[in-house]
Amino acid sequence: MALKFQYSNHKIECGTDEAGRGCLAGPVTAAAVILPRRFKNSILTDSKQLSKSNRALLKPLIEQDSISFAVTHIYEEEIDSINILNASILAMHQSIEKLEISPEFIIVDGNRFKPFKNIPYETIVKGDGKYMSIASASVLAKTHRDAYMEKIHEEFPMYNWKQNKGYPTKEHRAAIEKYGITKYHRKSFRLLPEQYELNL
């Protein structure tokens, strides 16, 4: 299915999306993107559907062709203090704030958002597979976050973040069990299955 260019009738519409919400370690990362009307790309879609090489191919194209884009990491300590949903929305807000042009309308992937200034917005479930600007934001959020996780992997290679990117894989949970947690782990998350049980 071809992606639509935009949702609203406003001239400057921005799409926003986040990556890393379900991870046990690392930041939650959001991007906001405003695309020009002439923007076209046949492989662009939701970043989760794209191969790593296609995401790597799209990242510089989106950054170069967009009217404006911005990316924000919200780190573990803040995630633990305000919770992951609020941290995701904050990352989106900060990315929109950093855009060189203020959008007249915002489209958001998913179903949760809080008003940003007085700009009208719409939340769109699976919006990253429907609208170009949200798909672009999903690619930037994912590639920027992946690069960060690959960097901190060097510091703590035993968790294999370069592979799992901080997601709760069996291997990641096994490493937490064996080595404990790092400064990059989110303390408010249930990091191991046994944390679901009460030790009475």
TrEMBL record:
<dbReference type="GO" id="GO:0043137">
    <property type="term" value="P:DNA replication, removal of RNA primer"/>
</dbReference>
<dbReference type="InterPro" id="IPR001352">
    <property type="entry name" value="RNase_HII/HIII"/>
</dbReference>
<feature type="domain" description="RNase H type-2">
    <location>
        <begin position="11"/>
        <end position="200"/>
    </location>
</feature>
<comment type="similarity">
    <text>Belongs to the RNase HII family.</text>
</comment>
<dbReference type="Pfam" id="PF01351">
    <property type="entry name" value="RNase_HII"/>
</dbReference>
<feature type="binding site">
    <location>
        <position position="18"/>
    </location>
    <ligand>
        <name>a divalent metal cation</name>
    </ligand>
</feature>
<keyword id="KW-0255">Endonuclease</keyword>
<protein>
    <recommendedName>
        <fullName>Ribonuclease HII</fullName>
        <ecNumber>3.1.26.4</ecNumber>
    </recommendedName>
</protein>
<feature type="binding site">
    <location>
        <position position="109"/>
    </location>
    <ligand>
        <name>a divalent metal cation</name>
    </ligand>
</feature>
<dbReference type="GO" id="GO:0003723">
    <property type="term" value="F:RNA binding"/>
</dbReference>
<dbReference type="GO" id="GO:0006298">
    <property type="term" value="P:mismatch repair"/>
</dbReference>
<keyword id="KW-0479">Metal-binding</keyword>
<dbReference type="GO" id="GO:0004523">
    <property type="term" value="F:RNA-DNA hybrid ribonuclease activity"/>
</dbReference>
<feature type="binding site">
    <location>
        <position position="17"/>
    </location>
    <ligand>
        <name>a divalent metal cation</name>
    </ligand>
</feature>
<dbReference type="GO" id="GO:0030145">
    <property type="term" value="F:manganese ion binding"/>
</dbReference>
<dbReference type="InterPro" id="IPR022898">
    <property type="entry name" value="RNase_HII"/>
</dbReference>
<comment type="function">
    <text>Endonuclease that specifically degrades the RNA of RNA-DNA hybrids.</text>
</comment>
<keyword id="KW-0378">Hydrolase</keyword>
<keyword id="KW-0540">Nuclease</keyword>
<dbReference type="InterPro" id="IPR024567">
    <property type="entry name" value="RNase_HII/HIII_dom"/>
</dbReference>
<dbReference type="GO" id="GO:0032299">
    <property type="term" value="C:ribonuclease H2 complex"/>
</dbReference>
<keyword id="KW-0963">Cytoplasm</keyword>
<dbReference type="InterPro" id="IPR036397">
    <property type="entry name" value="RNaseH_sf"/>
</dbReference>
<dbReference type="InterPro" id="IPR012337">
    <property type="entry name" value="RNaseH-like_sf"/>
</dbReference>
<keyword id="KW-0464">Manganese</keyword>
<dbReference type="GO" id="GO:0005737">
    <property type="term" value="C:cytoplasm"/>
</dbReference>
